[in-house]
Specification:
The chain is α+β, with helices and mostly antiparallel strands. It has 4 helices and 4 strands; from the N terminus they run ααββααββ. The longest helix is centred in the N-terminal third of the chain and has 18 residues.
Length: about 100
């Protein structure tokens, strides 16, 4: 399922580039990676808790909306931090709803 997750995220990221300034994309979105997708959710990995928290607070609605449009289905978007030294709490929203 990682290939499908990557395809959804690649298409979503292309759409995000059209919605936000280049500096915003490069700072907050460029290093986000798709981890996995299943029938209910898409998990994305941010490079740090700080980036994950910033994306959750300021851009999760946009990400969720575009994931729903790109995938054609309602998916919960989960943002995890790729930071093994800290806790792995996450941000969540449901796409397409």
């Amino acid at each position: 399922m990682t290939g499908e997750a990557e395809a959804i995220w690649t298409r979503t990221a292309e759409r995000i580039k059209q919605e936000v300034p280049p500096g915003t994309f490069n700072l907050w979105f460029a290093h986000v990676r798709a981890a996995q997708v299943d029938e209910r959710s898409l998990e994305l990995t941010a490079p740090s808790e700080y980036v994950r928290d910033r994306l959750t607070r300021n851009h999760l609605d946009l990400i969720t909306k575009l994931v729903g449009q790109v995938s054609g289905r309602e998916l919960e978007v989960r943002l995890e931090a790729d930071d093994p030294t800290r806790s792995r709490s996450d941000g969540r929203r449901r796409a397409g709803g």
